[in-house]
Design a protein that fits this description.
It is found in: Cell membrane; Membrane. This is Magnesium transporter MgtE. With 459 residues, the protein is mostly helical. The protein is built from 23 helices and 6 strands. The strands form 2 sheets. It has a 3-stranded mixed sheet with strand order 1-2-3. A hairpin with a 5-residue loop joins strand 2 and strand 3. It is elongated, with a radius of gyration of 30 Å.
């Protein structure tokens, strides 16, 4: 809301050339609030304001701007101005920014940077997007295991001001293998003459650089970490993931899962809803809707094949929505539970038989309850309906109740099965859990409904 409330005032001050007032106002705000305010301005005005701020302040605010806005602003800078901005960003932020720029601009700015920054950028940029290495930073403190506490504190005082995180000190052996960690608080409270190897925690929790970023966030949650070390295949420390970056990944993953559940495809962007173009919204939604609409033709074919059954007993049509809704709801519940368990690593695709057995038992109980309710509804609300003389409302109610029960049981099993199959093939379980589930349950539900009615009622 700040961008909508205050941005017009900032715009007016820009037009009047009162940049000192703007700078004073912006510098009194937290970088996150300042970025929210500036994001409501046109890109050229944002760049103009950032130019009037101290370089480090501008860099701190720049980091909090939406990624697309960062890219657009950076793309308009010459290589020298871009280099000045990049130097003041944290290692992971500068790589994220440069990777979002055209390749020629990426290559043009590297020679302007110092050798150390160039090598660091190339190293971090080499990791595949979505891996732990792609979200790590090299701003950490790592010390040899054989130095004393006093020597360690001296090094921290010297190196700490330039590091992103100093709350956890990582301990290395002579080959730079990660062998332990020490909390800053424990270091301060320890005797100055003790060696780091004597006070370090040797049970190190680390993540491989090529591992999925979800594996890193899982370890943050499981072990209550402030910083997570990232190692290569040889166990050498190559970077760390800080808690704020982990939170960003968690938010991103949750947003993507929510969108996948609602059949929204495409890559998630951190742009504001109102700032996202109509075409982007359209392109992210239309693909799955077309696929599901085509699959929906199968439902029509099933109805057509049971046309005679429906014509002979029109009362069946009144309860089709109940069948579809109940099947979809129970299937979605089952899928949600399984997707969550997969995300928390409580289960894996190898547990498929255990999961199916458990969900089948749950589904059977749900089927009994909902089947009885369906029978009672038919009996008490449709007693006066027009039905053939050869049938009675009790038989019809039993047929509908049994059909609903079978539908609930099958939908529960399908809802559990789809995410497990997706996970087994390395796909996002949320991608198929909801869009595919709804269509499959609708198709199977219609077939179960009319087949059961035809079998039990003889029509």
């Amino acid at each position: 809301m700040l961008d909508q409330l205050i941005a017009p005032d900032i715009k007016a001050l820009i037009e009047e050339g009162k940049f000192e007032e703007i700078a004073a106002f912006i510098e009194d705000r937290h970088p996150t609030e300042a970025a929210e305010i500036l994001s409501g301005l046109p890109e050229d005005d944002v760049n103009l304001v950032l130019e009037k701020l101290p370089l480090q302040t501008a860099a701190d605010i720049f980091c909090e701007l939406p990624g697309s806005l960062q890219s657009h602003i950076a793309a308009k800078l010459n290589k020298n101005d871009l280099a000045k901005l990049v130097i003041n960003l944290s290692p992971d932020d500068r790589v994220d920014l440069l990777k979002s720029l055209p390749e020629e601009q990426f290559d043009s700015v590297l020679p302007v940077l110092a050798k150390r920054e160039r090598e660091d950028i190339k190293k971090l940029a080499s990791y595949k997007e979505g891996t732990a290495g792609s979200i790590m930073t090299t701003d950490y403190i790592a010390l040899p295991a054989d130095i004393t506490v006093r020597e360690a504190l001296d090094k921290i005082r010297l190196e700490g001001p330039a590091k992103e995180s100093i709350y956890t000190i990582f301990v290395l052996d002579e080959g730079r293998h990660l062998v332990g960690s020490v909390r800053l608080a424990d270091l301060i409270l320890s005797h100055p003459s003790k060696k780091l190897r004597d006070i370090m925690d040797g049970q190190v929790v680390a993540v491989q650089a090529e591992a999925d970023q979800e594996e890193a966030t899982y370890k943050f949650s499981r072990y209550d970490l402030v910083a997570l070390p990232v190692v290569d295949t040889n166990g050498n420390l190559v970077g760390i993931i800080t808690h704020d970056d982990a939170l960003d990944v968690i938010e991103q993953e949750r947003t993507e899962d929510m969108e996948r559940f609602m059949a929204i495809s495409g890559k998630h962007e951190d742009t504001n809803y109102l700032q996202t173009s109509i075409w982007t919204h359209f392109s992210h939604r239309v693909v799955w809707l077309i696929i599901l609409a085509i699959l929906g033709l199968v439902s029509g074919a099933i109805l057509q094949s049971f046309e005679s059954t429906l014509m002979n007993l029109m009362i069946l049509a009144f309860y089709m929505p109940m069948l579809a809704d109940t099947g979809g709801n129970t299937g979605s519940q089952s899928a949600t539970v399984v997707v969550r368990a997969l995300a928390l690593k409580e289960i894996n695709p190898k547990d498929i038989l255990k999961v199916i057995w458990k969900e089948a038992q749950v589904g059977l109980l749900l089927a009994l309850v909902l089947g009885v309710l369906a029978f009672l509804r038919v009996y008490f609300t449709s007693s006066g309906a027009s039905i053939p003389e050869s049938m009675n409302i009790i038989n019809i109610g039993l047929a509908i109740g049994i059909a609903l029960g079978i539908q609930v049981l099958s939908a529960t099993i399908i809802g559990a099965l789809l995410p497990l199959i997706a996970a087994a093939f390395g796909l996002d379980p949320a991608l198929v859990a909801s869009p595919a589930l709804t269509t499959i349950v609708d198709i199977s539900g219609l077939f179960i409904y009319f087949s059961t009615a035809r079998l039990l009622l003889g029509i």
